[in-house]
Design brief:
Blueprint (H helix, E strand, L loop, with lengths): L2 H13 L6 E9 L2 E11 L7 E4 L6 H14 L3 E6 L15 H10 L10 E5 L6 E2 L4 H13 L3 H17 L6 H12 L1 H7 L8 H16 L19 E2 L2 E2 L1 E5 L7 H18 L11 E5 L3 H4 L4 H13 L5 E7 L7 H4 L4 E4 L7 H11 L10 H7 L4 E5 L11 E5 L11 H10 L1 H7 L7 H45 L2 H19 L2 E2 L2 E2 L1
Parallel strand pairs: 3-11, 3-12, 4-9, 4-10, 5-6, 5-9, 10-11
Antiparallel strand pairs: 1-2, 1-14, 7-8, 12-13, 13-14, 15-16
């Protein structure tokens, strides 16, 4: 072993403490040679400092995610994974040992034992797993605005609806409730009711929002709003001492990225607002992996980005770690990226000027290294290799290490259709969330209020008509008596004299030298 290899090995050993509870990521690489003595690890204590798993398509990001998830489960830490392609369900069963796995295990000098892990399958449609739902009120105006693609004015109106519902104690459970509140406040008595305190909602704005809600319903994804809403405590569980791995299969709604990415953020927000403060733990309660994270930030308004930044910044105190998985670090806003202390960067391609620019920006996010020219390493890594820097147990960034990654022990791919179906049959949570619960909510309350107001208005109109008819009848009777008097010859003569007395000076006509 050369002096350079020795110094590299010693630097990695010193930087990465393998004697504390940690995730074993792999062994350090120098000039593509495996240095098995130099273990690259991620301290469990630092998992709530969040992280980034990035790299080009096909570089092995999903398998790196799987490796970390498996070892977290072994440590009794619950895991949440979003499964974009539907190929993570295989974590539930042991992997098949083949020659490639044996070769990798030998290079890493590890004992490879294949095994499965406790898995719960979830779905937003209810077809691929236990139905995940949230009430409209739980979702909130900022996240809902992102899904509906509302502009700033429309988002402001949506905030008024939520504020009114909060103030009036109106449970907005599903989209029917939202539509009813919108209709009620944009016309009739509801519009009058909110004018002083909330302002006026124009018919054009309410009409646009209503059309977008209807369009969302027509996409068949309105099933995610309703009761029974998902209980986040179901995510933080253990089975036989191992942390439960919860997998949200979004392969059947992957053409609606704004929907599933925003829903996952709503789960994070629920965790943040409902879990107690935990401080610095020896290991996290739950680690949340957001795959295809760039979809979360695409065309996101400032209010949405601010909410993500706030949740990511503060949720670590609740014992929650968040890892963003995407192709490039530049997919993550700087304010969020700055909070991701653990970095696993797979190979990057530099085929175009934009690729070269992205590569340069990625290099600038890594500490300086005396062992690597980072831009060259990033473009020459193989599948199952990555450039890594994490926070050590003292919160200090470790040496940058090109790493030969350890392989997953569970199956690398989806369960078969038969295995998947059997898994759902065995799930108590699938049964728990299968049926929608119909509860009294804003729709029923406002419908009753509007019907009552309509009845009162109809009753008032009827009373007015009746009163008018009574008055008219009375007048007719009076007129009948007066007409009999005025129809007499004497009355006619008196009438003429009265007219003369009143109008004669203005309208009188001269006749024989006098007024007539």
């Amino acid at each position: 072993m050369s002096d350079n290899q020795v110094s590299f090995t010693e630097a990695i050993k010193k930087s990465y403490n393998s004697q504390i509870p940690n995730i074993y990521l792999g062994a350090g690489l120098l000039n593509t040679e495996v240095v098995s003595e130099a273990k690259v690890t991620l301290p469990l204590k630092m998992m709530n400092r969040h992280g980034l798993i990035a790299g080009a398509t096909g570089s092995g990001k999903t398998r790196t995610l799987q490796v970390i998830a498996e070892q977290l489960s072994d440590a009794g830490v619950a895991v949440f994974l979003s499964d974009i392609k539907g190929d993570l369900s295989g974590i539930a069963k042991a992997g098949v040992i083949n020659d490639k796995l044996k070769e990798r295990a030998a290079l890493l000098n590890i004992d490879y034992n294949n095994t499965g892990f406790p898995v719960e399958l979830y779905s937003l449609s209810g077809k691929k797993g236990a139905q995940m739902r949230a009430t409209v009120l739980e979702f909130g105006p900022v996240l809902l605005s992102k899904i509906l693609e509302l502009n700033e004015t429309q988002s402001g109106v949506l905030s008024i609806l939520f504020k009114y519902a909060d103030d009036q104690g109106l449970p907005m459970v599903d989209l029917n409730d939202l539509k009813k509140v919108l209709t009620y406040l944009s016309e009739g008595e509801g519009a009058k009711e909110i004018k002083a305190d909330y302002g006026t909602i124009s018919t054009s704005t309410s009409g646009t929002i209503l059309r977008k809600i209807v369009a969302l319903e027509q996409q068949g994804v309105n099933t995610i709003f309703g009761e029974k809403s998902f209980d986040i405590s179901d995510l933080i569980d253990k089975v036989d001492g191992k942390g439960l791995i919860s997998i949200l299969n979004v392969s059947d709604v992957q053409d609606k990225p704004a929907l599933f990415s925003t829903f996952m953020l709503s789960l994070l927000a629920e965790l943040y607002y409902n879990l107690p403060e935990a401080g610095d733990l020896d290991k996290p309660k739950l680690v949340f992996f957001l795959d295809e994270a760039h979809l979360l930030f695409k065309d996101a308004p400032k209010a949405f980005l601010d909410q993500i930044e706030q949740v990511v910044r503060l949720i670590r105190s609740k014992g929650i770690g968040v890892f963003f998985c995407t192709q490039m670090a530049q997919d993550i806003p700087n304010n969020v990226l700055a909070q991701l202390g653990n970095r696993v960067q797979h190979v990057l391609r530099a085929f175009t000027p934009n690729d070269a620019k992205a590569l340069k920006e990625t290099v600038n996010t890594y500490p300086n290294s005396q062992f690597y020219q980072i831009d060259k390493v990033l473009t020459s890594l193989g599948i199952g290799q990555a450039l890594i820097t994490v926070l050590n147990e003292k919160g200090i960034p470790t040496e940058v290490a090109a790493t030969h990654l350890t392989p997953p022990r569970a199956h690398m791919g989806p369960l078969s259709d038969e295995e998947y179906t059997q898994k759902l049959k065995e799930s108590t949570l699938f049964e728990k969330y299968e049926k929608t619960v119909d509860v009294e909510s804003a729709y029923e309350i406002l419908t009753e209020r509007m019907e009552k107001a309509a009845d009162e208005k109809e009753k008032l109109e009827a009373e007015k008509i009746e009163q008018k008819q009574t008055t008219t009848t009375s007048r007719r009777r009076e007129k009948s008596t007066v007409e009999q008097v005025l129809s007499s010859p004497v009355a006619k003569q008196i009438g003429k004299e009265l007219v003369r007395g009143v109008f004669g000076m203005l309208f009188g006509t001269k006749s024989k030298g006098r007024l007539f």
